[in-house]
Design goal:
By secondary structure, the chain is α+β, with helices and mostly antiparallel strands. Among the domains are: about 145-215, Alpha-Beta Plaits (2-Layer Sandwich); about 335-625, no CATH class. The protein has 20 helices and 13 strands. The strands form 4 sheets. Strands 1, 2, 8, 9 and 10 form a 5-stranded antiparallel sheet that branches. Helix 11 crosses helix 13 (about 395-420), helix 15 (about 450-480) runs parallel beside helix 20 and helix 19 runs antiparallel to helix 20. The radius of gyration is 39 Å and the shape is extended.
Length: about 650
């Protein structure tokens, strides 16, 4: 459980072997290809980089396959979708025939969806046209009736707030040569046919404009509104039938899902390989590859390279290369889920320490202490099991599933110690059923009655973790030849703190003097001022004392949040249980209690994780953690839908 040692690989091989060699390294999944370290040598400028055409085409295929799968998912019920991961060999997944079949399947699905979308758009347009014609259906005048030299014909609307009789009367007062014929009306408009003699044009238009007249543009329709509506209805029926047929055809394309999934996975595998290929440099007949691989894979890679005409070397990274060396964490089932925390914070430097095995016991312990409820622990276990076993989650989600399981066990144990099961759900339910009931879950301590003891215990746990971090720092510094710094920084404070504790307890005094404390203070004075000069010794001593005392005090006090979150969770659960018991019946109590506890669980999952993360990253990591690394990302075969099986 440490940071895996890496080897630097440099390889020169023939161009004609490049694809075969890259495929071999990808199937091994243990080599990360990096851009070559060219330095300032001008000769490197004569070398070229591989073209990116194949990478672009692979990306296009993956995008095409994903869009086709999304299209199928929109038109096929969830229950009808295949969920089993199929097993294929690498050759079956990446063969040209498989790729071509997947491309054709994607094109067929996307074409069918485009046709369905076009029919849906056409259907929407027809519905909109019929809605436009609906107010004019009672009008038996053709909509394209033209005006003549003597008479003008218009279709238009007036606001519903205008009385139709008022509009008619106003026109008659101005001229007898105009008439309004109503077609329909609704809450917003009067739909009208206007006819007038052209000699009254100015009078009619001016008066109607003042009333809010808006002309309707229906000249594109020939015949009456009813004739056009019947035509559109028939076209709408036909379009609906065509759309249903197209959607049925899409639903029947579910058999293409396997080919689409293979297309997506195959394109993703090719993209990974092509992205690595683009980091190579070429001459006319050879190529140069540089990268990193774990030490325990060096022999296997060396044997694989023996089948190629190539020259290669594997070297240990030098200290000046450490910043560029990728970091791979080697963890077991217990510490691996903590990668979620490490990745969220920052990866350790290559020459640093793997924090996961050091942090795991504290993180899991602290989380369970803050949650402390048997029911919450069981739900966390169930959630973690579902992620890992049913959803087969990997990566960050897989780490989350493992972390839920481990923290769920810790939460259940502390819940058993405090007698918490959805807070005080069981005692409250028992009293609701039988007011004389004295049912009480057994407990060792409770946050509501033993708050001070829990606070002291939280601070003690804080002291233990801080001292552990200091001990790790001491070991790390001695191992790296920094024993002097370890002695005057960490060990000095151990002596000071031990001396203070002995003095408070009245132990270890000689002649009435706290010898251990005095020795520690002398060590502190010398250690903090040994590298300073003149007045700087005074400021260095003051700074060391202030930063040490205030730093340790504030860091230890931060662990009071363990008690605070345990108490807050218990109180919130009890409040919701009390609110439920006010209803006076079992059903109301259960409903309110479960809703409240669900909210409490969600809040505590987030709160406990954030506060636990803070304690690890600030109070613990600050003692020894050297950050700055980047994760090791080897070229490999990662698939989402299929499982790659070994070729016989």
């Amino acid at each position: 459980m440490a940071i895996v040692k890496m080897k630097h690989l440099r390889l020169m091989a023939m161009q004609q072997d490049r694809d075969r060699l890259l495929q071999l390294l990808q199937s091994m999944g243990c080599v990360e290809i990096a851009p070559p370290q060219t330095g300032d040598d001008p000769a490197w400028s004569a070398l070229s980089s591989p073209d990116t055409g194949r990478l672009v085409r692979a990306r296009e295929r993956r995008e095409q396959g994903e869009r086709a799968l999304t299209a199928l998912s929109r038109h096929i019920p969830k229950g009808d979708r295949a969920k089993e991961r199929r097993s294929l060999t690498r050759q079956e997944l990446l063969s040209p025939e498989t790729v071509e079949a997947g491309v054709q399947a994607a094109q067929a699905v996307l074409e069918a969806e485009r046709n369905a979308a076009a029919l849906q758009a056409r259907l929407t347009r027809l519905e909109e046209e019929r809605a436009v014609l609906a107010p004019w259906l009672s009008l038996d005048v053709p909509l394209d009736t033209p005006s003549t030299r003597e008479m003008a014909v218009q279709l238009g609307t007036l606001p519903a707030s205008v009385e139709l009789a008022q509009a008619q009367g106003r026109l008659l007062e101005q001229t007898p040569l105009a008439r309004l014929f109503p077609a329909a009306g609704d809450a917003e408009h009067h739909y009208l046919l206007l006819m007038y003699h052209n000699s009254a044009h100015e009078v009619v238009t001016q008066n109607l404009k003042e009333l809010g007249w808006a002309r309707a543009n229906l000249k594109d329709y020939a015949g009456t509104a009813q004739d056009n509506d019947l035509r559109l209805a028939a076209e709408q029926t036909k379009t609906k039938e065509q759309l249903e047929q197209q959607l049925s055809a899409l639903a029947r394309m579910d058999g293409l899902r396997a080919q689409l999934q293979q297309l997506v996975d195959g394109a993703a595998v090719e993209m990974d390989r092509e992205e690595s290929r683009c980091r190579l440099v070429d001459t006319e007949s050879t190529f140069l590859l540089e990268g990193w691989l774990p030490v325990d894979c060096a022999d296997a890679v060396g044997k694989a390279l023996a089948d190629f005409v190539c020259a290669w070397e594997m070297t240990d990274p030098q200290p000046e290369e450490y910043e560029s060396v990728p970091v791979k964490l080697k963890n077991n089932w217990f510490t691996r889920p903590l990668n979620m925390v490490t990745e969220m914070y920052v990866y350790p430097a290559y020459d640093g320490l793997d924090p996961n095995p050091l942090m795991a016991p504290f993180f899991i312990l602290f989380f369970g202490l803050m949650m402390a409820d048997m029911a919450y622990g069981l739900l966390m276990l169930l959630g973690g099991w579902f992620l890992l076993k049913k959803l087969h989650a990997t990566g960050t989600m897989g780490h989350m599933g493992g972390l839920l399981v481990l923290c769920g066990v810790s939460t259940f144990i502390f819940g058993a110690l405090t007698g918490g099961f959805l807070g005080d759900f069981i005692p409250q339910l028992a009293r609701l059923i039988d007011p004389d009931s004295n049912v009480q879950l057994p407990y060792l301590f409770t946050p509501l009655t033993d708050t001070l003891a829990i606070l002291v215990g939280s601070l003690v746990l804080g002291v233990i973790q801080i001292i552990t971090g200091m001990a790790i720092s001491v070991v790390y510094k001695f191992r790296n030849g920094q024993g002097t710094d370890a002695f005057w920084n960490e060990i000095t404070w151990w002596v000071v703190l031990a001396g203070a504790a002995l003095a408070i307890a009245g132990i270890g005094s000689v002649g009435g003097y706290p010898v251990v404390l005095l020795v520690g203070l002398v060590m502190l004075v010398y250690g903090s001022t040994r590298n300073a000069r003149g007045f700087g010794k005074v400021t260095a001593l003051i700074g060391a004392v202030y930063n040490g005392v205030s730093g340790y005090f504030s860091d230890i006090l931060s662990y009071a949040r363990l008690m605070a979150l345990m108490l807050a969770g218990a109180v919130i659960a009890q409040v919701f249980n009390t609110l439920g018991s006010v209803t006076g019946n079992v059903v109301g109590f259960v409903v309110i209690s479960l809703i409240g506890n669900a909210l409490n669980l969600a809040l505590n999952l987030l709160g406990c994780y954030v506060h636990d993360l803070r304690l690890q990253c600030l109070e613990f990591f600050g003692r020894f953690y050297k950050e700055g690394g980047r994760p090791f990302k080897p070229m490999s075969i990662n698939t989402k839908f299929v499982t790659i099986k070994e070729e016989m």
